[in-house]
Amino acid sequence: MILNESLRLYPPGVAIARKAVKDCKIGSICLPKDTQFLVPILPMNYSETIWGDDAEKFNPYRFSEGSEKAMGSFFPFGKGPRACVGQKLALLESKILVAMILQNFSFHMSKNYIHSPVVFVTLYPQHGIPIILHALKRLLGVYHVKQEANALQAKECSEREINY
Ligand code: HEM
């Protein structure tokens, strides 16, 4: 739900390119053969007609029953036979990354963060996303145990050197 909502508000691919292979009509628009056109992912993801009055708000719960409410207009990875081949990999990697971060850190946004998404080929945060990570206590415990073990090992080594 969180990944879908993030991809809705900030889809890295903001549009997909297509070419009409024959004369056709989409709704009221006539497209002669060979017309090249863009399907705008970004504007559709902010459409109040599709998503309701809170279209601009981050609300992962809107995906609690899948993306059916979007009536087929939610496709951050494209659609059809040329849809993204990396979709499953990208989603799996993102879930693993989020799980690994949450297992080991709490985090908050840096005060230096400036919300400034821009499009240059893909949509990305112009000034990056500086976040502050805090190691969880559990992790700090492991870190201290490791430090103690290292200190012990170093002591043993230096004693051995003296004995030789
Ligand atoms: C969040 C991550 C990603 C997003 C949002 C994304 C989005 C997209 C979109 C919108 C398209 C165009 C689809 C269309 O025209 O219908 C595309 C195509 C493609 N993507 Fe991704 N992609 C992502 C990650 C990846 C990864 C990780 C790989 C490879 C490991 C990948 C490989 C490709 C390839 C090869 C195509 C061209 C497919 C074709 O033309 O047949 N993508 N992607």
What string gives the helices and strands in order? HEEEEHHEHEEEEH
Low-confidence stretches: none
Molecules bound to protein: protoporphyrin IX containing FE
Describe the largest sheet: 2 strands, antiparallel
Count the strands?
A: 9
* Amount of helix: 25-40%
Shape: elongated
How many independent structural domains?
A: 2
Strand content: 15-25%
Give me the secondary-structure category.
alpha+beta
Radius of gyration (Å)? 25 Å
Span between termini: 63 Å
Across the major sheet, the strand order is 1-4
Give the helix tally.
Answer: 5
Q: Averaged pLDDT, please?
A: 91
Question: Can you describe what's shown?
Answer:
With 164 residues, the chain is of the alpha+beta class. The protein folds into two domains: 1-84, no CATH class; 106-164. Helix content is 38%, strand content 23%. It is built from five helices and nine strands. The strands form four sheets. A two-stranded antiparallel ribbon has the order 1-4. The protein has a two-stranded antiparallel ribbon with strand order 2-3. A hairpin with a 2-residue loop joins strand 2 and strand 3 (29-31). The termini are far apart. It binds protoporphyrin IX containing FE (HEM). Its main location: membrane. Belongs to the cytochrome P450 family. It comes from Amborella trichopoda. GO terms for molecular function: heme binding; iron ion binding; monooxygenase activity; oxidoreductase activity, acting on paired donors, with incorporation or reduction of molecular oxygen.
